[in-house]
Amino acid sequence: MIHRIAFFALFSFMLNASALDQTDSGNYAVMHRDGHITDFTFFVSHNEGQWNVEQRQPDGTWASATCARNCLLKESKAHDLARFFSENELNDTHPSCVHNHAFAFCRQDSIFRPGEKEYTLVALMMMSQPVQIQLKRLDSGWKDAQGRLEPDSDSRKVQNGFGGWLLVTADTDWERKWKTEPASIPHFSMAETISKGKPVYALTFFSNPKLDDRGVADITCDIDLRKPDGIASFQQTDATCFKGTLKGQPNYLYLSAPIIKFIGEQNDPYGVWQVSITLKDNVGHINLPLKTSFILQ
Asked: Mind giving me the DSSP string for 191-254?
């Protein structure tokens, strides 16, 4: 009896020690049985003691799966875990979950491979037995202010972890806004329509480039500015965007060197001007074409 009590106390301690915490917040995607990552993505967050799950919709918006009282997530107890996982899985991992009546979100810490984590979604509704669905944590990509991943667009993309962002702004104080903490993302107003004589600036940002053996990033870019009739106004190939060591973590946001300043002159045609920049990570061998536009009126 004493041994049983001791074992139960130890088991309870292990469960509490491995409970889900703020580090488990983030973006996740469902993995298909064949191993590829599906478009079924959702965002897990923890605010004021409550876990929340939002699913990304086809149009890019987010819908809460934990918004009503009967679908709020609660911490899973030992008897819940015994329902979600087999005896062998419980022997091999320390699972910790939060769940409602429809699903459970779980992290499994390997007992035999310390530091190794797996994430699982357990479907509970309309099933005779709980069904486990493997998840892939998505750490790279552009995120909104809440930390949710945003879908790629013509002007902002991620490829193999390398991210690029092209924007046109009329902020004459863009440089002051940019000189903030390395981990923060400054807010720039987007210039969609401009008048002649007023300056706008095309800024190109990058994140998470590959580094060579010396820890050096090497990024060049092709620049193309075209008039409304499609004729090139300015072009440059293999301009140096950045070369050297990064002053911070690779996944911080960095500003590339070429800043395109445009002022519409009297003889410039009215209409839509196209700005295209291809960021080329020469170490990672990744080309990232970006494009945006503005209207001169």
From this structure: -SEE-TT-EEEEEEEEE-----TTS-EEEEEEEEEE-TTS-EEEEEEEEEEEEE--SS-TTSEE
Same domain, 173 and 292: yes
Pairing relation of β-strands 37-47 and 26-31? Answer: antiparallel
The partner residues of 289 in beta bridges, in order of sequence, read 278
Q: pLDDT tens, 216-238? A: 999 999 999 999 999 999 999 99
Tens of pLDDT, residues 172-201: 999 998 987 655 667 888 999 999 999 999
Note whether 175 and 283 are same-domain residues.
yes
Residue 197 token pair: 């004589």
Per the structure, the count of domains in the chain is 2
Query: pTM for this structure?
Result: 0.72
Residue 250 included in any domain: yes
Give the domain CATH number at 247: 2.60.40.3880
Q: Which residues pair with 96 in a beta bridge?
A: 107
Q: Are residues 132 and 192 in the same domain?
A: no
Q: Is residue 216 located within the same domain as residue 108?
A: no
Amino acid at 6: A
* Identity at 265, one-letter amino acid code: E
Please count the CA atoms within 13 angstroms of the CA of 181 that sit on its side-chain side.
Answer: 2
C-alpha 287/C-alpha 142 separation (Å) is 17
